[in-house]
Amino acid sequence: MKKGSKLTEEQRQKNIEAQKKAWANPELRKRHSEIHKGQIAWNKGKKNIYSEETKRKMGKSNLGRTAWNKGSKLTEEQRKRNVEAQKKAWANPELRKKSSESHKILWQRPEYRKRMSESAKTSINPSKFKVGHGFSEGVIGKIRKATLKQYESGSFPKQTDTKPERQIKEELIKRGHKEGIDFIHQYKFMNKFMCDFCFPDKKVVVEVDGDFWHANPKKYPDQTKLHKHQIKDIGRDKSKNAYIAKVDNGSWTMIRLWESDIDKNVIECVDKIEEALKRQI
Predict the structure, then answer these.
(1) What is the DSSP string of the chain?
(2) pLDDT 10s per residue in the chain (281 long)?
(3) 0.85 cut: is pTM over it?
(4) Under CATH, domain 163-279 is a member of which superfamily?
Protein backbone atom coordinates (compact mmCIF):
# COMPACT_ATOMS: atom_id res chain seq x y z
CA MET A 1 0.00 0.00 0.00
CA LYS A 2 1.25 3.45 -0.88
CA LYS A 3 2.31 5.80 1.89
CA GLY A 4 -0.42 8.27 2.77
CA SER A 5 -3.23 6.24 1.20
CA LYS A 6 -6.26 5.46 3.36
CA LEU A 7 -8.29 2.30 3.68
CA THR A 8 -11.87 2.39 2.49
CA GLU A 9 -14.63 1.41 4.93
CA GLU A 10 -15.05 -1.86 3.02
CA GLN A 11 -11.32 -2.63 3.36
CA ARG A 12 -11.44 -1.86 7.09
CA GLN A 13 -14.38 -4.22 7.57
CA LYS A 14 -12.54 -6.96 5.63
CA ASN A 15 -9.49 -6.51 7.86
CA ILE A 16 -11.65 -6.68 10.99
CA GLU A 17 -13.36 -9.85 9.79
CA ALA A 18 -9.99 -11.41 8.91
CA GLN A 19 -8.62 -10.59 12.37
CA LYS A 20 -11.71 -12.03 14.07
CA LYS A 21 -11.35 -15.22 12.05
CA ALA A 22 -7.65 -15.50 12.86
CA TRP A 23 -8.07 -14.88 16.59
CA ALA A 24 -10.84 -17.47 16.76
CA ASN A 25 -8.03 -20.04 16.36
CA PRO A 26 -6.90 -21.06 19.89
CA GLU A 27 -3.57 -22.31 18.50
CA LEU A 28 -2.75 -18.84 17.14
CA ARG A 29 -3.66 -17.19 20.45
CA LYS A 30 -1.47 -19.65 22.35
CA ARG A 31 1.49 -19.13 19.99
CA HIS A 32 1.11 -15.34 20.19
CA SER A 33 1.02 -15.50 24.00
CA GLU A 34 4.19 -17.62 24.13
CA ILE A 35 6.06 -15.27 21.76
CA HIS A 36 5.27 -12.21 23.87
CA LYS A 37 5.67 -13.87 27.27
CA GLY A 38 8.19 -11.95 29.35
CA GLN A 39 8.46 -9.09 26.89
CA ILE A 40 8.26 -5.55 28.28
CA ALA A 41 5.57 -3.36 26.72
CA TRP A 42 7.04 -0.72 24.40
CA ASN A 43 5.19 2.03 26.28
CA LYS A 44 5.89 0.82 29.83
CA GLY A 45 6.97 3.69 32.08
CA LYS A 46 6.25 6.29 29.40
CA LYS A 47 3.81 9.11 30.06
CA ASN A 48 1.77 11.13 27.58
CA ILE A 49 2.55 8.85 24.63
CA TYR A 50 -0.01 10.73 22.57
CA SER A 51 -0.46 14.50 22.51
CA GLU A 52 -3.89 15.99 23.22
CA GLU A 53 -4.19 16.86 19.51
CA THR A 54 -3.42 13.26 18.49
CA LYS A 55 -5.97 11.95 20.99
CA ARG A 56 -8.64 14.28 19.56
CA LYS A 57 -7.83 13.15 16.02
CA MET A 58 -7.99 9.49 17.04
CA GLY A 59 -11.36 10.04 18.72
CA LYS A 60 -12.71 11.94 15.73
CA SER A 61 -11.57 9.23 13.27
CA ASN A 62 -13.58 6.62 15.23
CA LEU A 63 -16.83 8.61 15.34
CA GLY A 64 -19.71 6.77 13.69
CA ARG A 65 -17.79 3.52 13.33
CA THR A 66 -19.36 0.30 14.55
CA ALA A 67 -17.32 -1.34 17.30
CA TRP A 68 -15.66 -4.56 16.14
CA ASN A 69 -17.21 -6.50 19.04
CA LYS A 70 -20.72 -5.02 18.84
CA GLY A 71 -23.34 -7.69 19.46
CA SER A 72 -20.89 -10.22 20.87
CA LYS A 73 -21.50 -11.48 24.40
CA LEU A 74 -19.09 -12.63 27.05
CA THR A 75 -19.36 -16.15 28.41
CA GLU A 76 -19.85 -16.64 32.16
CA GLU A 77 -16.23 -17.78 32.41
CA GLN A 78 -15.01 -14.61 30.65
CA ARG A 79 -17.11 -12.44 32.97
CA LYS A 80 -15.62 -14.14 36.02
CA ARG A 81 -12.10 -13.67 34.65
CA ASN A 82 -12.80 -9.97 34.03
CA VAL A 83 -14.17 -9.49 37.54
CA GLU A 84 -11.12 -11.18 39.07
CA ALA A 85 -8.77 -9.10 36.89
CA GLN A 86 -10.54 -5.89 37.98
CA LYS A 87 -10.31 -6.87 41.65
CA LYS A 88 -6.61 -7.60 41.26
CA ALA A 89 -5.99 -4.33 39.43
CA TRP A 90 -7.92 -2.21 41.93
CA ALA A 91 -5.96 -3.74 44.79
CA ASN A 92 -3.05 -1.64 43.48
CA PRO A 93 -3.12 1.74 45.32
CA GLU A 94 -1.07 3.35 42.52
CA LEU A 95 -3.76 2.48 39.96
CA ARG A 96 -6.52 3.83 42.21
CA LYS A 97 -4.59 7.08 42.63
CA LYS A 98 -4.08 7.46 38.85
CA SER A 99 -7.75 6.74 38.19
CA SER A 100 -8.82 9.34 40.75
CA GLU A 101 -6.52 11.96 39.21
CA SER A 102 -7.74 11.27 35.67
CA HIS A 103 -11.38 11.59 36.79
CA LYS A 104 -10.62 14.94 38.42
CA ILE A 105 -9.19 16.18 35.11
CA LEU A 106 -12.25 14.89 33.22
CA TRP A 107 -14.68 16.63 35.59
CA GLN A 108 -12.95 19.94 34.84
CA ARG A 109 -14.23 19.72 31.25
CA PRO A 110 -17.71 21.32 30.83
CA GLU A 111 -18.63 18.97 27.95
CA TYR A 112 -17.86 15.90 30.11
CA ARG A 113 -19.94 17.22 33.04
CA LYS A 114 -22.80 17.92 30.64
CA ARG A 115 -22.60 14.39 29.20
CA MET A 116 -22.58 12.84 32.67
CA SER A 117 -25.57 14.99 33.67
CA GLU A 118 -27.50 13.80 30.60
CA SER A 119 -26.71 10.14 31.31
CA ALA A 120 -27.92 10.64 34.90
CA LYS A 121 -31.41 11.37 33.55
CA THR A 122 -31.97 7.64 33.33
CA SER A 123 -33.45 6.26 36.54
CA ILE A 124 -30.67 6.21 39.15
CA ASN A 125 -31.38 3.57 41.73
CA PRO A 126 -28.71 2.91 44.38
CA SER A 127 -30.29 -0.46 45.16
CA LYS A 128 -29.35 -1.74 41.67
CA PHE A 129 -25.65 -2.01 42.54
CA LYS A 130 -25.15 -5.60 43.67
CA VAL A 131 -22.30 -7.75 44.94
CA GLY A 132 -21.16 -10.15 42.25
CA HIS A 133 -21.60 -7.66 39.40
CA GLY A 134 -18.02 -6.47 39.68
CA PHE A 135 -18.73 -4.45 42.84
CA SER A 136 -17.53 -5.28 46.33
CA GLU A 137 -19.73 -4.52 49.35
CA GLY A 138 -17.42 -1.62 50.24
CA VAL A 139 -17.65 -0.08 46.75
CA ILE A 140 -21.46 -0.45 46.74
CA GLY A 141 -21.68 1.35 50.08
CA LYS A 142 -19.54 4.20 48.75
CA ILE A 143 -21.69 4.54 45.58
CA ARG A 144 -24.89 4.68 47.63
CA LYS A 145 -23.43 7.21 50.07
CA ALA A 146 -22.11 9.39 47.23
CA THR A 147 -25.47 9.34 45.42
CA LEU A 148 -27.42 10.17 48.57
CA LYS A 149 -24.95 12.92 49.53
CA GLN A 150 -25.34 14.47 46.07
CA TYR A 151 -29.12 14.24 46.43
CA GLU A 152 -28.92 15.85 49.87
CA SER A 153 -26.76 18.76 48.68
CA GLY A 154 -29.19 19.60 45.87
CA SER A 155 -26.60 18.91 43.14
CA PHE A 156 -28.28 15.65 42.12
CA PRO A 157 -29.67 16.06 38.54
CA LYS A 158 -33.45 16.53 38.41
CA GLN A 159 -34.94 13.18 37.43
CA THR A 160 -37.17 13.82 34.43
CA ASP A 161 -37.64 11.67 31.33
CA THR A 162 -36.23 8.62 33.10
CA LYS A 163 -36.02 5.22 31.42
CA PRO A 164 -39.28 3.90 32.98
CA GLU A 165 -41.07 7.11 31.90
CA ARG A 166 -39.78 6.70 28.35
CA GLN A 167 -40.95 3.07 28.33
CA ILE A 168 -44.46 4.15 29.35
CA LYS A 169 -44.54 7.00 26.84
CA GLU A 170 -43.37 4.80 23.96
CA GLU A 171 -46.05 2.19 24.73
CA LEU A 172 -48.77 4.88 24.98
CA ILE A 173 -47.75 6.32 21.60
CA LYS A 174 -47.70 2.81 20.08
CA ARG A 175 -51.34 2.45 21.11
CA GLY A 176 -52.33 5.68 19.41
CA HIS A 177 -52.29 8.13 22.33
CA LYS A 178 -50.85 11.46 21.19
CA GLU A 179 -48.46 13.41 23.39
CA GLY A 180 -49.60 17.00 23.89
CA ILE A 181 -53.18 16.12 22.88
CA ASP A 182 -54.27 13.00 24.80
CA PHE A 183 -51.60 13.14 27.50
CA ILE A 184 -48.91 15.50 28.80
CA HIS A 185 -45.55 14.26 30.04
CA GLN A 186 -44.34 16.23 33.09
CA TYR A 187 -47.55 18.09 33.94
CA LYS A 188 -47.89 20.72 36.67
CA PHE A 189 -51.08 19.66 38.42
CA MET A 190 -53.21 22.64 39.51
CA ASN A 191 -49.95 24.65 39.76
CA LYS A 192 -49.18 22.64 42.91
CA PHE A 193 -46.73 19.92 41.91
CA MET A 194 -45.34 18.04 38.93
CA CYS A 195 -46.82 14.73 37.81
CA ASP A 196 -45.14 12.32 35.41
CA PHE A 197 -48.14 11.91 33.10
CA CYS A 198 -51.56 13.50 32.95
CA PHE A 199 -54.62 12.89 30.76
CA PRO A 200 -56.42 16.22 31.42
CA ASP A 201 -59.61 15.40 29.47
CA LYS A 202 -60.02 12.06 31.24
CA LYS A 203 -58.81 13.40 34.62
CA VAL A 204 -56.22 10.65 35.06
CA VAL A 205 -52.78 11.19 36.61
CA VAL A 206 -49.96 8.63 36.35
CA GLU A 207 -46.88 8.59 38.58
CA VAL A 208 -43.81 6.47 37.82
CA ASP A 209 -42.11 5.62 41.13
CA GLY A 210 -38.50 4.50 41.50
CA ASP A 211 -38.18 1.42 43.71
CA PHE A 212 -35.46 2.94 45.91
CA TRP A 213 -36.54 6.57 46.25
CA HIS A 214 -40.22 5.73 46.86
CA ALA A 215 -39.41 2.58 48.89
CA ASN A 216 -41.27 -0.16 47.03
CA PRO A 217 -42.69 -2.38 49.86
CA LYS A 218 -41.80 -5.51 47.85
CA LYS A 219 -38.14 -4.51 47.97
CA TYR A 220 -38.19 -2.71 51.34
CA PRO A 221 -40.67 -4.71 53.47
CA ASP A 222 -39.33 -3.32 56.76
CA GLN A 223 -40.52 0.28 56.56
CA THR A 224 -38.87 1.06 59.91
CA LYS A 225 -35.40 0.80 58.33
CA LEU A 226 -35.84 3.29 55.50
CA HIS A 227 -33.40 6.07 54.66
CA LYS A 228 -34.56 9.59 55.57
CA HIS A 229 -34.87 10.52 51.87
CA GLN A 230 -37.15 7.55 51.27
CA ILE A 231 -39.32 8.61 54.23
CA LYS A 232 -39.44 12.15 52.84
CA ASP A 233 -40.55 10.95 49.39
CA ILE A 234 -43.21 8.68 50.91
CA GLY A 235 -44.58 11.70 52.80
CA ARG A 236 -44.72 13.74 49.60
CA ASP A 237 -46.47 10.86 47.79
CA LYS A 238 -49.15 10.68 50.49
CA SER A 239 -49.77 14.43 50.34
CA LYS A 240 -50.03 14.31 46.55
CA ASN A 241 -52.44 11.34 46.69
CA ALA A 242 -54.63 13.08 49.25
CA TYR A 243 -54.82 16.32 47.27
CA ILE A 244 -55.64 14.61 43.95
CA ALA A 245 -58.31 12.44 45.66
CA LYS A 246 -60.14 15.52 46.98
CA VAL A 247 -59.76 18.10 44.19
CA ASP A 248 -62.79 18.69 41.89
CA ASN A 249 -65.03 16.65 44.19
CA GLY A 250 -62.84 13.57 43.88
CA SER A 251 -63.28 13.32 40.11
CA TRP A 252 -59.58 12.62 39.40
CA THR A 253 -57.94 9.17 39.32
CA MET A 254 -54.35 8.60 40.43
CA ILE A 255 -52.33 5.59 39.22
CA ARG A 256 -48.89 4.73 40.60
CA LEU A 257 -46.57 2.37 38.73
CA TRP A 258 -43.38 0.88 40.15
CA GLU A 259 -40.14 1.05 38.18
CA SER A 260 -39.55 -2.72 38.53
CA ASP A 261 -43.08 -3.54 37.30
CA ILE A 262 -42.54 -1.37 34.21
CA ASP A 263 -39.20 -3.03 33.56
CA LYS A 264 -40.79 -6.47 33.95
CA ASN A 265 -43.90 -5.87 31.81
CA VAL A 266 -44.58 -2.38 30.44
CA ILE A 267 -47.62 -3.68 28.49
CA GLU A 268 -49.46 -4.71 31.68
CA CYS A 269 -48.66 -1.32 33.24
CA VAL A 270 -50.11 0.60 30.28
CA ASP A 271 -53.14 -1.75 30.35
CA LYS A 272 -53.83 -0.40 33.86
CA ILE A 273 -53.71 3.17 32.54
CA GLU A 274 -56.11 2.34 29.71
CA GLU A 275 -58.52 0.62 32.11
CA ALA A 276 -58.60 3.80 34.20
CA LEU A 277 -59.19 5.93 31.08
CA LYS A 278 -62.18 3.75 30.12
CA ARG A 279 -63.69 4.14 33.61
CA GLN A 280 -63.45 7.93 33.28
CA ILE A 281 -65.62 8.09 30.13
Answers:
(1) --TT----HHHHHHHHHHHHHHHT-HHHHHHHHHHHTTPPPTTTT----S-HHHHHHHHHHTTTPPPTTTT----HHHHHHHHHHHHHHHT-HHHHHHHHHHHHHHHTSHHHHHHHHHHTTS---GGG--BTTTB-HHHHHHHHHHHHHHHHHT-SPP--S-HHHHHHHHHHHHTTPPBTTTBEEEEEETTTEEEEEEETTTTEEEEEE-TTTTT-TTT---GGG--HHHHHHHHHHHHHHHHHHHHHHHT-EEEEEEHHHHHH-HHHHHHHHHHHHHHT-
(2) 556 667 788 888 888 888 888 888 888 888 877 777 766 666 666 666 677 777 777 777 777 677 766 667 778 888 788 878 888 887 888 877 777 777 677 667 777 666 665 554 444 455 554 444 444 555 555 665 665 665 555 544 455 678 899 999 999 999 999 999 999 999 999 999 999 999 999 999 999 999 988 999 998 999 888 888 889 889 999 999 999 999 999 999 999 999 999 999 999 999 999 999 999 86
(3) no
(4) VSR Endonuclease (3.40.960.10)
